[in-house]
Amino acid sequence: MNELKNDRYLRALMRQPVDVTPVWMMRQAGRYLPEYKATRAQAGDFMSLCRNAELACEVTLQPLRRFPLDAAILFSDILTVPDAMGLGLYFEQGEGPRFERPVTSAEDVRKLPIPDPEQELGYVMNAVRTIRRELKGEVPLIGFSGSPWTLATYMVEGGSSKVFTRIKKMMYAEPQTLHLLLEKLAASVVLYLNAQIRAGAQAVMIFDTWGGVLTGNDYREFSLHYMHSIVDGLQREHQGRRVPVTLFTKGGGQWLEAMAATGCDALGIDWSTDIGEARRRVGDKVALQGNMDPSVLYAAPGRIEQEVAAILERYGQGEGHVLNLGHGIHQDVPPEHAGAFVEAAHRLSRSYHL
Ligand code: CP3
Q: What's the rounded mean pLDDT across residues 141-161?
């Protein structure tokens, strides 16, 4: 029951030897797959899909039926946590996520509750349990959350942003208000991820999509500090097995040493950082996940294969690498190109694990 048929992903995160480099793709369940679009249409809207354990399980498994991926990732969203805090998440057609009640004042922050993961977020735990049952031990299941900073950007901006005017205004004009918000988010995320682990997530990942828009000092104070407190609060072992934690700050290539010092097991890196240099910098402290530019998947399979070969060569011989994209897969990529990426990862990496 507890045995995994393929544990390469977990082994690589713990820098143990593997036969080939494990591979998965951020946002591997999604709109580039026609079967995803069909299930999403059946559910109605995106949040109804997330709230339906059977359908969330179905879309989690869809990419695994097509490609020999080494991990499954829970189908959900990082914005479930602010939604559970009462902000009213909705998706406007073609406009991305929005909140009905964004956080605009210190008073709003003081009133925010810390959600009970088994209550308001119980639908996520049901999805985790359903997916674990249906995976039948084929590959590990990754649970996830947004970082406090990244969640705060959506909560204060009211949705996606390119310039982050409102949250930066709060950061510089009312830093204590932002710190209170981040503290509440960090406490919520610890409860949420520990509940995912108890429900069956075998590894967890923290997405800090917007940490890279900060200065180095602000990154440490407003983003990394809270990810560090989450790492400290996580249940790192479950049913006798270590639950590895991956931190991913998009655009965080300058801060890898500081990120590795949090005690996490692995760092996700995007394509703007050379993975060979990243490895030299973090040494044997953490594993690395990455880092192909997702746009390479627009290229023909031969070109995708070249890029996989280049990443494997830069990382070099031995343990500690999980192949992935440097950010989520684009929605207009041909599924066969994603297949070429996964296939090349396994075929070309064998000689690096002798
Ligand atoms: O990786 C997976 O396959 C698991 C599912 C997953 C989703 N979102 C599904 C989703 C994960 C891990 C996320 C994380 C997420 N969500 C992040 C961090 C990772 C990153 O990409 O930077 C962020 C910033 C979000 C917030 C979010 N959710 C945005 C900005 C959007 C709209 C963007 C878009 O692609 O339209 C979403 C919606 C969303 N989350 C979709 C999916 C498949 C598209 C919804 C749809 O079906 O229309």
A: 98
